[in-house]
Amino acid sequence: MSLFFNKKSEAPKPACSCSGGCSTPAESGDTGRMVKVLGGGCAKCNQLEEAAKAAMIELGLTPEVDHITDFSQIAAYGVMTTPALVVNRKVVCYGRVPGKDEVKDLIRKGME
Length: 112
Known about the structure:
Blueprint lengths: L34 E4 L4 H16 L6 E4 L2 H6 L7 E4 L2 E5 L5 H12 L1
């Protein structure tokens, strides 16, 4: 009888529902919203969230913005400096707070 044995290793399960065929970060409870703000909830992150909502209103979009504060989910996007703006699951800006007009341009380009 052996005290130590090799445990049968299992293949890692994909974090998303596409069986591992995607290259986008998976989020638990992803609402599918187009615009996300990544950050811990500091004043700059909140400022970016408000700029994103204002920009979406001006673009005629519903101002629904997810604010991701879980640092493991933030790191899954490859972001190490917050705040960050994500449009259609792609990081378009990080480490600073762009103005409303720049956010409008980033959202417009991200929708193309």
